[in-house]
Design goal:
Helix content: 40-55%
Distance between the termini: 41 Å
Number of strands: 8
Oligomer: single chain
Shape: globular
Radius of gyration: 20 Å
Order of helices and strands: HEHEHEHEHEHEHEHEHHH
Low-confidence stretches: 1-23, 38-52
Structural class: alpha/beta
Length: 371
Amino acid sequence: MSCSSNAPSPVGSLDQHAPLHLGHSPLRCELVNSVYSHSSYSDSPDSTAASSVEDIRIHRSLPTGVYVPTICFFEETSEDLDIDAIARHAVRLAEAGVAGITTQGSNGEAVHLTHHERKIVTSVTRRALNEAGFASMPIIVGCGAQSTRETIELCKDAAISGGDFALVLPPSYYKPSLKPNSVMEFFEDVATASPVPILIYNYPGAVSGTDLDSDAIIKLAGHANIVGCKLTCGNTGKLNRIAAATQATTPSDHGSGFMCMGGSADFTLQMLVGGGSGVICGLANVVPKACVEIFNVYQSGDLAKTQQLQGIVARGDWAAIAGGIVGTKSALQTYFGYGGLARKPLPRPTIEDAKRYAEGFKEVVALEKSL
């Protein structure tokens, strides 16, 4: 998406004394595009990756609802991508009624994948959804990297692989050297150069404690190519402020179109009451119907039942949080017959580990199988 000269501009920067802040003015857009529009350094797509996607690049919007940061599956011995499992899992989630899929998140072991493998995962997901009759379902692709340059490259890879939106973490490796306005400029530059709209991913635990406040996210929301945020920080007040200031989309009101998303399943009811748009939650890899049911029952007006469902899902989500991707895959294997192992150096669960993980998910899986 090219930068529009009449795009809204942020109301200043986090560093009010910065010598020159161009925001996303026409001049800054021109400078950014001139720097990042040259040939990509990443590997070219081939017949097994992005170029294989039979996708006419239709415009897909982000509806309200539950989004799933999908697990990435591997062959047990070789650790090669398990293409069949990736495709079948995406279709299972779509059939459960989720609003969209997110590839290349922490649940998807993005940090264990090469650029080439990332493109394969997204293209396989897109093809599987298309062939199963879910061509309108959007795919958000995790595109976080430490440099502005690589982040933009990942956004471009996402676009050619069938992704519709990019989910971007702030940089953190050189956090002590970053100036107050560095992260703001990072998001502005990425949004200006990205061929797909981006969502800001606020996940302090994954980025050395960097926690964007509501003022920063509200300013960045003024960029024409920043269309939402994912708040894995779990801060309800922050979600309230952002949702109100941006007139975020809700299940009952399209509002401005900005998507203010919670970042875990135990945050669903709070997100809905606070004026949010949806959740991107890893627990839905195991129990997608249960996660969707909270959303549906709340919309029906039955608050008491919604609270009951949220309690069950929150307890299951704690098992997912405590066990991480290893525990989530183990539970998926135990209850649904697939899941496999994470890539090394993540550990292989012992028999006792698997029993403990299964017990943590037992209640929420029972709910899932009742729906």
